[in-house]
Each structure stands twice: as C-alpha cells, then as structure tokens.
TrEMBL record:
MF terms in GO: deoxyribose-phosphate aldolase activity
Protein name: Deoxyribose-phosphate aldolase
Xref: InterPro entries: Aldolase_TIM, DeoC, DeoC/FbaB/LacD_aldolase
Lineage: Bacteria, Bacillati, Actinomycetota, Actinomycetes, Streptosporangiales
GO biological process entries: carbohydrate catabolic process; deoxyribonucleotide catabolic process
Family, as annotated: Belongs to the DeoC/FbaB aldolase family. DeoC type 2 subfamily.
Pathways involved: Carbohydrate degradation; 2-deoxy-D-ribose 1-phosphate degradation; D-glyceraldehyde 3-phosphate and acetaldehyde from 2-deoxy-alpha-D-ribose 1-phosphate: step 2/2
Signal peptide from the UniProt entry: none
Keywords tagged on the record: Lyase, Schiff base
PANTHER family: DEOXYRIBOSE-PHOSPHATE ALDOLASE (PTHR10889:SF3)
Enzyme Commission designation: 4.1.2.4
Amino acid sequence: MTYLEGRAGVPKGAGLEVGVLVGDAVQVSTVTTSLADVASSDAALRAFLHGLPGVDRVGADQRAAMLGTRSIKTTAKAQAIDLAISMVDLTTLEGADTAGKVRAMCAKAVRPGGEAPSVAAVCVYPDLVAVAAEALTGTGIKIASVATAFPSGRSSLDVKVAETAQAVASGADEIDMVIDRGAFLSGHYLKVYEEIVAVKAACGPAHLKVILETGELSTYDNVRRASWLAMLAGADFIKTSTGKVSPAATPPVTMIMLEAVRDFRAATGRQVGVKPAGGIRTTKDAIKNLVLVNETAGDDWLSPEWFRLGASSLLNDLLMQREKLTTGRYAGPDHFTLD
C-alpha cells in the first residue's frame, strides 16, 4: 500500500503490513487500500481507517494481562524505576492551580529526591506555561501544555489554534491537544484530521501530542483507527487520555497504540511516540508499561524521547520504591513533597 506517494520517503507501491493479534500469536495482514489520496475526503479516509485489520478484543486483553505478569527484580528493577522517572510528564491540571504550585512542582521535577533523575516534562495549562518556562530555564526539562479546549475539545478551530499559538509563544516545547471525539464517533474523520493538521502547524517548533481520549472511543478498533488518523495528520506522539475520563490508560489500549506506532514506522519510516496518561499511580503500573513497550514496539521506544508517562501521583511511589531498593527501608508517604 502506498503512503501518500512521494511523502515520508515511502516509494510508490510500498506495502503496509499490520500486526494482528490472534490468541498468543501475531499474524501479519497487508492493508491494500491506497493512501495516495487518503485525506481527500471523508469517504477516502473512512475507506482506509475501516480497512485496517480489526482488533481481537479477547486476544488483546489476554496478551496485555500476560505481559503484566512479568517480574522484574533487583538491579533490573532499579534501572526500570529510574527509566520510568525520566519518562514522567509531571502534571497538574486543576482549576485551583497557582503559580506557586507550578514553581514547587518544577523544583521537584528537577530534583525529585535523592539521586533520582529529573523527569521528562512538566505539563500545565496554557496560562501557567510562562511560570514553568521561567522556573525550568536551563534544566533541559520540557514544558508541555494542554490546549484545544482541554479536556472536552468542544470549541471552534480558531480558538484551538489561538490557544496553541499562545502556549507556544509563552514557552511550551510540547502541546497536548485533544481530538473532537464527537466528530470522530460520528465518522467525520476528515474534520478531525484537518484540525490536527492545523494545530500541528500552529505548534511551530513544538512537538504535538494528540490525545485520543480512549475511554470515550468505545472499541479497540476505534483506538487503532484514531491512532492512525492522528499519525497521518502529523502527530509526534499519540496519547491515551486526558486523565479526566475513566477508563484511561489501560494496558490493552496502550498495547494497541504501541502496535500502531510500530506498524506506522514500518510503513513510513517515521517514528511516533506514545504517552499513556490517567490511572498510572504505582511503580508496578509504570513497570508494566515498560514491559508493554519492550515487547510490543521494541526497545527503540524505551526512552523519554519516544515514551512518556502522564501522571501526578506516580512520581512519589517511584521515589518510595527507589528508596526501598537503595536503603532497604520504605520511606513514609510524607517523606517526599506532595504534588
């Protein structure tokens, strides 16, 4: 299958092979719909997205559950904890957020505790980006900001683009946008595609993370379709959730998105990151996600450049487990600052 012939370095006639989980085995299916004019109309986009192989829900649930039983001990666990800390997007997205709270969170992001590494990014609302940018100057930690009428996405495209541009002008390195789930579920795929393209353009040098809000997409097939739609439109990352809707970052959903980025790179040569967010609260949760990455997409994604964990309370649990491995004793929950 061709991928927008002449773009992304993919030659004419290139085939797209998509891994399909059947029981415990992965079968390879070739999608034959041409993508030369995939975004020319709703009909063309629908033909491609609905031509993707369906997801075996039982198989996906079973494989994700099986991978969740992997046990990581001692030195490997210590390395996994530090890697997970380095992947955290430390987040506060509350109506009661203040400049003081953001500054305190930024200080923790730089020095989480002991010899632990810094986190990957701090994620805040657009009006607090400038505060975070000032606090994190010279640290190398990214400033991420939600935009596009987060978390509902219910606003005009002009407003979404303006909010994105404002956040980038204030110092955001990354924009986390939400798709219009109503449009997606109504089959208006081209509208969703064009909004992502417009927001990506407004990002300028900033990276774009596209939030699918998988808890509202109803089916695993829709998760796969939304993942491909976002990547075709230019997403640098695909993200599970806003954290405001349940269920959020479930292991099967994260696995399906990891399969999508793996297959997308095989087809186009372009690597896209994945960010599960919402409901990831414990070290065990974080390590399960690292296993999913390694076993599904491969170790090319095992870095903060390509995999993030969106969380607020997770960091303290990682620090507590790190302290236990280092000293042999559990630190109390009040040993670390509360976020």
